[in-house]
Amino acid sequence: MRVPSLEECYRILEEEGVPPHILRHSEKVALVAAFLARNLRDLGEPLSLPLVVAGGLLHDLTKHRSLETGENHAESARRRLLERGFPEVAEVVGQHIFLKPGPPGTPLRAEEVVYYADKRVRHEEIVSLKERFQDLRERYGRRPASWVRIWRLEELTKLLERRLFKRLPFGPEKVLELNQVEDVKACFTAWLS
């Protein structure tokens, strides 16, 4: 598996021209994902922490462009990461909007952790699923088809949340405490060492 280092992730973000507000959102997503992955690994889930951090940091790699072009930014970011030689990270990033659920009873995957983490971060703030999906409905649920799609994603994400927290010794509200972390990059450095 080839995963970019923390420094490489930040260099890629800079080379792709990711604006500061999307970078801060991505750092929060990676923080939530890494926090969950660390705790789930302690319970025996075979999650790669470097893969989860890279997937969280790079998941919105082309979002700023997509706002102008209308492209599917999960797919365009996946392609950019494939071009850079990071197929595993590309798979994680490619599923951060529409997750392909794993079969029941299989180990948790980095794709699921990063997808869930993205659904807990509204702009730069970690919030509940309810708050995040309310925001998504307000921003993207203007047509009936969009509203139905968001409702289906919310139901899927609630199921995933139950799966993620089933064995953890704390509930989803614990993740809100990560809003108090001031130096996200220092957390990554410590957790990845």
TrEMBL record:
Protein origin, superkingdom: Bacteria
Transmembrane segments: none
Domain HD/PDEase stretches: 18-132
Pfam families per the UniProt record, alphabetical: HD
Name of the featured protein: HD domain-containing protein
Record organism: Thermosulfurimonas marina
